[in-house]
Amino acid sequence: MMNKVFYTYMWLRENGTPYYVGKGLGLRAYRDGAPDKNRIVIQEWPDETTAFENEKRLIALYGRKDLGTGILNNRTNGGEGLSGLIKTKEHLEKITNQLKGRPLSEEHRRKISEGMKGEKNHAFGKKRPDVSIRNRAIKKGVVLSNEIRAKMSAAKIGIKLSEETKRKMRGPRRPYGKRNVKTV
Question: For 105, which DSSP code?
């Protein structure tokens, strides 16, 4: 078993002054948003407690911009990880307003899609019952015609269905938020 290597890291501006100090493990210092590798300073510590203490020391040494005491963009005094950041109601409202109505970028959509594949998907490995289409239709208040019922039975025994038939079996698409609309 490998020992965990805890470290503190500083992200440096182009002029060499630090703008962020953190405690890391693994590749934390190189995550998205990190500067080039040649502008990251890392110092290893024997345990997490010592790394947290050094993080606090460095933040106190360089000071925080938000408090008007220095040059760092850190939002806490360190030593507690991100869990130490307590967002005010105003800050949460600002984040919400920034995200409202914002279209997702293609990269963000791809990340969401990749995150739902395989074992990361909450339904991974769970077997859906054969009656799930019928049950979902009943819950939505959709009345299934005899023709669709016959086609559903045919699908269960392996008869190939056309794309048009499959589309009809799924029913009409509804706008988001229109749940209890009955269709025939």
Answer: P
